[in-house]
Amino acid sequence: MGQGVLSAGFARSAGLLRCEGVPLDTIGEVAGTPSYVYSTSTIRNRYDLLSDTIASVPHRIHYTLKANSNRAILRLVRSLGAGADVVSGGELFRARQAGFTGEEIIFGGVGKTARELAEALDARVLLVNVESEMELHLVDEIAARRRIRAPVSIRVNPEITVDAAHQYIRTGERGQKFGVPFDDARRVAELAATLPHVTLLGLDMHLGSQLSRVDPYRVGTERLTSIAADLRARGVGSLKYLDIGGGLGVRYDSEEPPDLARFAESVLPLVAASGLQLIMEPGRFVVGNAGVLLTRVLYRKHSGGKEYVITDAGMTELLRPSHYGAFHRIEAVRADNGHIRADVVGPVCESGDFLALDRDVQNVRPGDLLAVFDVGAYGFVMASNYNSRTRGAEVLVDGDRFAIVTERERYETLVQQEVDDPEWRS
Question: Which of 19, 241, 332, 347 lies deepest, with the highest CB count within 10 Å?
Fold first, then answer.
């Protein structure tokens, strides 16, 4: 997908970019910039695509909040039938605020605190995905104090080398911090089955993020089902769920998206043979292509033989280019015939503050609007207040209507938690 090819939900009409039926310049005038604009129809279509792909086996889809935890989007995916996958107490709170019941929530994460585990058990979550033997014992202790049995799944590190865009988003390889090492998984699962205040309900894995090949899912599923078979042979009859995580990739530029038909052919027969209910935890796959970052050009500059387009959005709004070297397409909201070669940079006082380097972009001028594509995942959720910058608004579009679903932060928001007259202790 090259320059000028738009994401689903976004199209150009009479030279003007629109999100569904709404011109982006209209949203820019009402919501201001920077703003994140999301397409409802894209989210619906992506969710339905995955649901249809795995429809032949009993399944649950738990949307991963870490991709985008806006409450309006959470309410939307819940209305489509999704549960929630959370990795912190804050995400658990967000999920509950958006209407998810405890039984619709899976709680994961490699470093859960005792408080978070207690909150998960008090919420009666469907599963706690346990990532170590020490955590398993802590869950058992917390459940004992509550005189309940904690529903757990063991996150297994399948130790599979995957082809991901960046080393930071590979989570299922040997030596990663995530999950129980594959060689220990059977023993830890057997231990879980014997603890008095734990019920072992599932096995779980997560290979990584932005994956385009389906073979790792097949191999990982084979490894999980082999553990499940061994456990059953040893008398463990409580297993109900086989959670193969998320990580299905989306297209940002020229990536080849995963072949979902081949995914179904490779993975679903293994799940069916196991007799377990499939769980998937998509995040980026559902929302990644559903959003754009709307930003306004502040200045043009020529320096050191290079052209710079300076915008009011930067690494504080979209960290992925700086942090991961990620590519995001950028187009002017209003079409322009000319093009330039330029760095598109933000206002933050860091040399690493950029949205694109040495990019062919339209010959925009100060005041023009730019759309940075495919920011529906890991955009707003990774935004920061560095340089005491206020975070932008979030806007949801549905057909020919739109609504601001997160108000732009105010300066007062930046200091509201700070204490003017602290209580000194010794």
Answer: 19
**Which conformational region is residue 418 in: left (phi greater than 0), alpha (psi within -120 to 50 degrees), or beta?**
beta
Q: Is the pTM of this model over 0.85?
A: yes
- Both tokens of residue 132? 């170590």
In angstroms, the CA 241 to CA 128 distance is 12
Residue 206's Cα: distance from chain center in Å? 13
Please state, in angstroms and as integers, the Cα–Cα distance from residue 421 to each residue in 372, 388, 418, 424, following that order: 43, 21, 9, 9
* Torsion over CA: 270, 272, 278, 282 (sign): positive
CATH class of 10-39+288-415: mainly beta
Pick from 172, 320, 167: nearest CA to 246: 172
User: What is the C-alpha end-to-end distance of the chain, expressed in Å?
Assistant: 61
pLDDT digit string, tens, across residues 119-174 = 999 999 999 999 999 999 999 999 999 999 999 999 999 878 655 444 544 444 45
Q: How far is it, in rounded angstroms, from Cα 159 to Cα 186?
A: 14
388, with CB counted inside 10 A (0-12, 13-18, 19+), is exposed
Sequence spans of domains, the chain: 10-39+288-415, 108-282
Of the candidates 95, 23, 46, the residue with the CA atom closest to the CA atom of residue 335:
23
Rounded to an integer, what distance in angstroms lies between the CA atom of residue 94 and that of residue 331? Answer: 33
Count Cα atoms within 13 angstroms, Cβ side, for 330: 33
DSSP label of 334? B
Interhelix angle 114-122/89-97, rounded to 10 degrees, is 30
What phi and psi, each to the nearest 5 degrees, are found at residue 260? -70, -35
pLDDT digits (tens, 9 = 90+) for 260-308: 999 999 999 999 999 999 999 999 999 999 999 999 999 999 999 999 9
> Is the distance from CB of 162 to CB of 209 less than 8 angstroms?
no
Do 63 and 28 contact (CB within 8 A), yes or no? Answer: no
Question: What residues are annotated to the active site?
Answer: 349
pLDDT in tens, 50-94: 999 999 999 999 999 999 999 999 999 999 999 999 999 999 999
Residues near 38 by Cβ (< 8 Å), separated by ≥ 6?
A: 19, 68, 70, 73, 287, 290, 291, 376, 394, 395, 396, 397
CATH topology of domain 108-282: TIM Barrel (3.20.20)
DSSP 8-state class, residue 251: -
* C-alpha–C-alpha distance, residues 269 and 397, integer Å: 38
